[in-house]
Write a structure and sequence with these properties.
By secondary structure, the chain is mostly helical. Helix content is 50%, strand content 11%. The protein contains 2 helices and 3 strands. The chain has a 3-stranded antiparallel sheet, with no helix packed on it.
Length: 107
C-alpha cells in the first residue's frame, strides 16, 4: 500500500497499514504491495475453491447458479446404478449355481 502524504512541506508521510508517522526520505525506496496483494487474494480464492471441491454440497467458483448439490446427486445415481449391476450379476451367478446343482441332483 502506498504512503499517505500528511504534510508535504514538512515531508511527513503516514503508513496506513501500521499507522506509523515518519519523515519522508530520498534514500529509502518504498514499493507498493497492492499488485502482489491482488494476486494473493486471487490465489486465496482458488485455494478456497479447491477445498470446496472436496465437499459435495459446496458451491464451486466457476459453476452455474443452482449447482451446489450436483456432485451429491451424481454420486447417488452412479452408486445406485453400479449397485444394481453388481446385485444382478451376483443374483445371476446364484441362480446359475442353483440351476447347475438341480441338474446334478444335489437339490
Amino acid at each position: 500500500m502506498s504512503m499517505v502524504h500528511i504534510a508535504p512541506e514538512a515531508h511527513l508521510v503516514l503508513d496506513p497499514l501500521t499507522s506509523v508517522l515518519a519523515e519522508e526520505r530520498e534514500d529509502i525506496i518504498c514499493y507498493s504491495m497492492d499488485p502482489i496483494m491482488e494476486q494473493i487474494d486471487e490465489l486465496d480464492k482458488i485455494a478456497d475453491d479447491l477445498i470446496n471441491s472436496l465437499a459435495p454440497d459446496r458451491k464451486l467458483l466457476n459453476s452455474y447458479p443452482g449447482r451446489e448439490n450436483t456432485s451429491l446427486k451424481a454420486g447417488f445415481y452412479g452408486n445406485t446404478f453400479y449397485g444394481v449391476v453388481v446385485g444382478l450379476v451376483f443374483s445371476g451367478m446364484v441362480a446359475l449355481a442353483l440351476y447347475i446343482l438341480s441338474l446334478i441332483g444335489g437339490l
